[in-house]
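Hello Y.,

Per our agreement to keep a running log of every chain we model this quarter, I'm adding this entry. I've kept the format consistent with earlier entries: sequence first, then predicted structure.
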Amino acid sequence: MGRNPASIPRGAVLTDQYQPPTVPAGIPAALLERRPDVMSAEQLLVSANADIGAAKALFFPNFSISAALGSATHDLSNIVDKRAAIWSVSGGVLQPIFQGWRLFWNYEGTKARFDQALAQYEKAAQNGFREVADALVSIDKFKSVRLELEQSVIALQDAARLSRIRYDTGLANYLEVLIADQQLFDQELLLARSRGDEINAVVQLYRALGGGWQ
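Predicted structure for the entry above:
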């Protein structure tokens, strides 16, 4: 870079950096309804339920009533009136009789597709519960590890400081200082990795809930 070596600018120390938010107790399970996979499975279930109604309606004849002779009437309640027109029924009155088995198995098929959609919805809900539970367990586990590593780092910082004091007073050689510093640096790396794992677990909880717990 064309510059003489100098001090390196540093940011905030490790213990002063951002900590993940505390997860509140009693997260409602209704938050899982916002998950895209749960919403998709729910809409498929609604669609399959509507198909059952449509398949059931096919059992009823599809016919139209029209006047063949005589005067016309616009009131369907007058159909049985002898003074009204002679009516003829046309269309598929006999259609459900001749196609009954086809309509029956079509109805059974729609019910089977509904059961399949219901199973997929239950699977999506259970998968959401599992992911939330895994994330909560991971957060608790990584938090415990982080707290232990923080105590270990504090102890090794004291050990490194004391070893340097011993070296300055001539009670120890510099190898003792190097060993203490190496142990401290290794533990600090583990602490940084543990902090990252804890924050990633919080991110996974946000994802599992479909957008946090607000």
